Amino acid sequence: MKSLICSLYLFLAWPQQVVFEQAAEAYNAEEYKKAIELYESVLEEGQHSAALYFNLGNAHYQLGEVGPSVYYFEKALLLDPEDAEIRNNLNYANNMRIDAIEQVPKSFFGQVRESILGWFHFDQWARIGIVFMLISVMSFLAYQWIAGSTFKRFFFIVALGAVGLSLLTLLISYLDFQQYQSEQPAVIFSQQVSFTSAPNTRGDILFTLHEGTKVNVLEQYDQWAKVELPDGQTGWIISESVRLLKDF
What we know:
Elements: H1 8-13, H2 17-28, H3 32-44, H4 50-62, H5 66-79, H6 84-94, H7 108-117, H8 122-145, H9 149-182, E1 185-188, E2 192-196, E3 205-210, E4 214-221, E5 224-228, E6 234-238, E7 242-244
Antiparallel strand pairs: 1-4, 1-7, 2-3, 4-5, 5-6
């Protein structure tokens, strides 16, 4: 497990600097419950960052609390999807889970689509698209101003290519954003939860899972949530049994 992050940027940016430092000291002294309380007090002030969630995940992991550790590492990964250390620690936390659920195999085209979308975050794809658009504009201006057929042909081709790449990357950004918006990932917090066939206590019990399992919330009704597992199974559980990951 990676040690605690103590970011100078956080210290300078947050009015809760002293509390954050106290939490770091408590963690290093192996007073993990105290560290969690202090970090949560920072959260209550409306402060969010990948480093803060990463630290919370580490503290819960040290206490052997599967659900919270997976939950906070997943939230950290949402804010910083390129961080290899967060992914590494999330893998450690997932290894503590009781349930091993296989993901539904994707088709070849589904795998290709997921691979391409996974290269960058949707906002990064958008920035790349804007860069290509700027290149196309500058190339078109150069085509208009520069004399000589060879150079004009070169900048014309570059402008067309940059426009095509810009449209392609912006389309990928849009598709990635649509996928992000359509999903409501959550993590089971209850130590054990039974999935039922209907949003009430009279429904048949379909199966039972344990804390730390990541699910996707499809809909909510009253005090119930219909969730989908990575293997495609669905069922209803009490909403309080899970915590949404995008509730920043």
